[in-house]
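We treat protein structure as text, and this decision shapes the records that our systems exchange. The tokens are whole numbers drawn from a learned vocabulary of local backbone shapes. One such record is reproduced below, unchanged from the form in which we store it:
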Amino acid sequence: MTVAIEMGSTQGGQPATLDLEELLATRLLVQGNSGSGKSHLLRRLIEQSARWVQQAVVDPEGDFVTLAESYGHVVVDAAAHTEAALQQVAARVRQHRVSVVLNLENLETERQMRHAAAFLGGLFDVERDYWFPMLVVVDEAQLFAPAAAGEVSDEARKASLGAMTNLMCRGRKRGLAGIIATQRLAKLAKNVAAEASNFLMGRTFLDIDMARAADLLGMERRQAEMFRDLARGHFVALGPALARRPLAIRIGDVETNGRAGNARLLPLPETQPGDARDLILKAGAFEPARAPLVRPTAADTAQLLAELAAARPQPSPGQALVEAALSAPPPPPRPVPPKVELDVVLREVLSDEGALFRSVAQIYQDFLVRCRSHGLNGRTLDMAAFRRRLAVARAGLADQPVSDDPEWARAENLAEAMGEDIEPVFLLLARAALDQAACPSNAAIARARGSHSARRALAVLEHMESRGLIATTTDAWGARIIQIPSLGWQTAPGNPDAGEDGDIVAS
């Protein structure tokens, strides 16, 4: 069934429609400066699609809570819930197919990011039986997926960015269709914005934002100036759910109103200067009186402490022992490293098709999500330790027995200091040299690099050779031999054009 909702009208007066089923599969990005009509556009979209699909609105300003009166959305006040509670709420939202508005207005920025990440994680982690279609609308998306680090903690930024990345990159298979709105594309993380296939671009003034908007819409740079001239509520649409070519549309009216401030001019009340002075400097008839602020002196503080000490009853000997036991610091818990369990989850993550070719941040986020589903704390394995295990996996050494040779420990120490791009490749070459096995092929080196490209394999070998980490030679039959000067090892001759498993790849 095809459902086309009317977003407004074109310049020719024809209805501008949006294919709702196509939107569920392709996602939407809305961009426009403050006052361009983004919130009005989102409200129109939510109202028109409310009876067709379940919705969740992440609302940092509390502007969409008025949807509850007319459309039955449940307003969830994020300030009244912990992050763990919000995850459970999100799971119930999907189980019972209830449309909600997550109101974040009473939280400061860092807590907004943490609570939004927990809520989105709950929507994402629900069991497969509840993967019903849902529109997830995120207003002011640059707050939750910033392009650069800001004043918030790195942990909060990573959690929020990871949740937004999951929504836009992997949410489709779970029935989640991300609709994100931002004031500036330059402030939004590129890997989040790049996953949208539908665009509605509103008024913007900065050259860099106009150029990026024109690039996304497939327009020439000289046409980018048109975004300065767009009126409030006018957008340029493009995408499989909207139009195959850039189309200027005007967003239609909405039935509900937001709680944002009114930007229209309002005449000041006619008040005499004397009366105005009394209004602000004298207490009103029903205004509660505030207690005067009294700052204690040093003498007052000393007297108060003496009175408290004198009034405290002396404990009995038994009570004194109890109080001493209670006040003593608790013994440190014995660490129980969940190494086996975490390794099982890591193997589960890496067993997915194409997992090794994703970015480290995406794999780590997937690892944390699956750890939560198994009841484990994945953060006991920090990012640095996770990178090392991922490097071993990309090098194809995860299932091999650990070598007792002390020289291999030296090779691991050298690899750890080389950085995440080179470490798995160095481990792959070092293990082949230690075992006197054939030199790994370009395909195997590219896999360790997290790529399918043989050119990248050659590029990383050239880079390592320029740094003196390896030396490459060729025998009389064209087979490649790689030496590792720092270890004094070298591989056996190997065919660089073989596949990952050693089979010859036809050129």
